[in-house]
Amino acid sequence: MSLSxxxxxxxxxxxxxxxxxAGQPFRLLGWQKRFLSGAFRxxxxxxxxxxxxxxxxxxxxxxxxxxxDVDGPLVEPMAETVIVASSFDQGTIIFRxxxxxxxxxxxxxxxxxxxxxxxxDSQNKAVIVDRETGAMVKVHGSDPRRLHGLAPKLLILDEVxxxxxxxxxxxLAALKTSRGKIPDSKALWIGTRxxxxxxxxxxxxxxxxxxxxxxxxxxxxxPPFWRQTWVKAxxxxxxxxxxxxxxxxxxxxxxxxxxxxxxxxxxxRLNQGVSDIRRSVLVDLxxxxxxxxxxxxxxxxxxxxxxxxxxxxxxxxxxxxYWRSGELESVAVFPEIPDLRARGLAxxxxxxxxxxxERGELLVSxxxxxxxxxxxxxxxxxxxxxQAIICDRWREAExxxxxxxxxxxxxxxxxxxQGYKDGGQDVRDFRSAILGDLVRPERSLLMTAAMAEARxxxxxxxxxKLAKSSQGGRRxxxxxxxxxxxxLAVSAGYRRWHAVPETGRxxxxxxxxx
Length: 514
Fold this sequence. Notes:
By secondary structure, the protein is α/β, with parallel strands linked by helices. The chain is about 40% helix and about 20% strand. The strands form three sheets. The chain has an eight-stranded mixed β-sheet with strand order 3-4-5-2-6-7-1-8. Strands 9, 10, 11, 12, 13, 14, 15 and 18 form an eight-stranded mixed β-sheet that branches. Strands 16-17 form a two-stranded antiparallel sheet.
């Protein structure tokens, strides 16, 4: 019988000690059988990655028990099995499972004084030793200062993605050195995928230095809230696990409303190899692509909100229309000087502005200052009279002047501050609308480029507003005006049609021509 088969047979003889399946024999799932077969049928290291909560810790504990139990197929005289986690406390989660699996052997052979097994379980030490064979299992955090002097036969590297970056490489170097003391030592890398392709765990999953690698993850374009997507990253769901599915479903509902929760959901539940902390982007690429893929509603409602972002001097000005049925469209204007080709080179975007103009998304009007009146006339001709116009409070008087000059039809004028109070609510409502599938953006180079440039900054209370200048890592010459206009339009429409009544300070109707 092969070693992998022996380990599998041993694990099936264990008894689950907690949770829904307590008291039942350990049932090896498909992914566990596959990993055992690949990990122990070849002499090199092995790596596996999947979503959080799928049974990795319990499975690791079962493998570790096989290296210290009396009849364990991985037991070798004086061999150390070392579990290394991001912290000692994290590692003790696996240790508690091992203790429960070994409870029958502890009862039969005794532990501590007068017993065959010696167990040390304290705030800074977790060790199990078989006095007869000298085989042991011990737990360490990823502190490199405490990893010297080991001589492991088997290493279980738990959630390497969560190891402290400043210590991670030194910790792995110390473990690599320690493995040189024992011939044919093996490491099992287990956890969720890291955000960086250069991370040591990701390199292991890609096959660097390992003989077998297995990764379960949702694709970047997979809808994050579909059960089929969850199963891709959580193969245990194919075998039941109703408690896990209940937790994932609950977290998915949170992720629909909260971009921070969505970042964590993608990283830990969908195992997509992204950061579990949302960066300062307005909307991440995957979320925007999913919204764009929704397409048109098929029956555009007549009501829409017009968001207007007025540029200063030679800057871009932009307008965005958001309809109750979800459509989002945009248009912008640049002055004639400098021309679009020269401006694109100066802003570091090449021919992008020229392409926007060729697509009819970008106007050129005004000599050295963008022609706001031309922009407003274009919005009116394309989309008709809006239900409301939303603008920055500081540019209200200027916008009123332009509206009156072109006799723009009457519409409610809503002004919003750009600080954390109004701006924070606008960003929050914009994201809620996107995550709630309430926005169907047109396939627009203008809007896509603006969303790629848009960044947010966050105050200590967790409120995020659109960044200006170089805040939040924003490029100094970034043109995110269409995104700013979209935030105003979508957030106002969201509050008006889909959430609580809108809280913007309304100055009354604009008294233009009907």
